[in-house]
Automatic annotation (TrEMBL):
One of its GO terms (biological process) is tRNA threonylcarbamoyladenosine modification. Keywords: Acyltransferase, Cytoplasm, Iron, Kinase, Metal-binding, Transferase, tRNA processing. Coiled coil: none annotated. SUPFAM superfamilies: Actin-like ATPase domain. It comes from the Bacteria. Binds 1 Fe(2+) ion per subunit. Its cofactor is Fe(2+). This is tRNA N6-adenosine threonylcarbamoyltransferase.
Amino acid sequence: TQSLTFLGIESSCDDTAAAIVRLTGEVPEILASVVAGQFELHAPYGGVVPEIAARAHAEKLDLCVEEALAVSGLGLADLDGVAVTAGPGLIGGVMSGVMCAKGIAAGTGLPLVGVNHLAGHALTPRLTDGLDYPYLLLLVSGGHCQFLIVGGPEAFTRIGGTIDDAPGEAFDKTAKILGLPQPGGPAVEAEARQGDAKRFHFPRPLLDRPGCDMSFSGLKTALVRARDAAMAEAGGLLRQDRADLCAGFQSAVADVLAEKARRAMRLYMERNPARPAIAVAGGVAANTAIRARLQGVAAEFGAEFAAPPLKLCTDNAAMIAFAGMQRFRRGERDGMDLTARPRWPL
Ligand code: KG4
Ligand code: ZN
């Protein structure tokens, strides 16, 4: 069996990442996966600042690549190619990554492969769990929320998604509204563990409508209203109120995702009756409560369920190297004219 070893580079949002992945036949092995976050840099602004992100990527990319090589014990001469996220994402960051990859490719003569960030997330269940095609994928992150039928390394059919905010974005806004640190997901989840989900009322948007589309922006309005009422009553935001608000919010998101996943699964099963399988990917898939609900939906259908380990749910370069090798094996590669794309639907 032919073995391939790729360097992967990711810089589309607020994580600078480099990884070395080896693919032997169908079996991948992550030799190194380095992720440098930027939370501290953006924290004072309550959200990712594109200019700051781009500069931080430009500063850290080389270091991440060097570290990934050091961890793997390999040199550039041991590689078969360089894969890089070419979009979608914050354009300055994507450009920094593409430039870095082009520099390495030009200097070494290694082939260059541009990767769609979403394809990286979508193929992660194969990287981590060896999940066979096809499978239904729920991609839920800070910037994305969609149901995809993954039929092959480049066969993605979108069957629904958010019509406004992504759930991760909603978690981040919730944290901001309640004075919790960024990124909001882990902070809100920790609070929710101490809270009563039934105390405050949150809507379940779009559940009354058919289909797999979702909406999360209305939860913010409900949250602000409930918070203001609680604060007026107590003269400030009490710890328990904050926990109850987080629990109520998280439970609304989980209910919507679970019910829409159920519908998406029905649609998927009509097309793929012989292979029930559901996977999650993206940063929000790190949420234990949401994972458990989706696992419950999988069980209802007797479906195989795959949820990548937390480190590979959030942005990383291993998924980019892996997706890049899939393209490369099909004979696809890019030239020095590879461009960074802010928008790039799958
Ligand atoms: O996939 P990702 O690293 O970046 C992209 O958006 O592409 O996802 C980051 C998002 C953030 O919005 C973060 O708040 C959310 O994932 N997140 C979580 C949790 N951990 C991270 N959301 C809910 N619960 C979590 N435990
Ligand atoms: Zn992502």
